[in-house]
Amino acid sequence: MQSDPRLQEALDYVGIIRVISLYSLGQDGHQRDNAILEHWDRVFAPDATTDYSAAGAPVCSYRELAVWMRGANGRPGRMSRYVGWQHMLSIPVVTVDGDRAHARTDFAAVHQLRTDGPGGARSESHGAFHDDLARGKAGWRITHRRLEVYFGNELHTVNPMLPAR
């Protein structure tokens, strides 16, 4: 008996969304540690590449990107200047062609900058992730991710949790 192709399409879509969501869970769920690879190893193919040149990163493997973001061996990374962050993702637009797929996912990211005193600053960026994916024995994995930044800005803030002077 042949399966309904619409069922396979739905299963592919759910599997791809799961992988894309695990990326942000790894990034946002490990703000106090550098254990993002616990999630990213389930997101990226072992030989996956990333292009975050729009943010100043080299084109590199996802593991090298993690070091660029978080630092290693006592050296700070790009994310070290923040005390917290959150990445909100849109619903991906997915195209599947057999065991290959492409997804585009818009995002809005907020990063709280490390500051002294009652004032603060937050940077916001908006853009898209462009992912090439492949289906393997472990399911869907990203083989290449490119970051596109539409726009961003830095906002100066006042901490409403501090008592007024």
TrEMBL record:
Residues 8-146 form the SnoaL-like domain. SUPFAM superfamilies: NTF2-like. InterPro entries: NTF2-like_dom_sf, SnoaL-like. Gene3D superfamilies: 3.10.450.50. This is SnoaL-like domain-containing protein. It comes from Dactylosporangium sucinum.
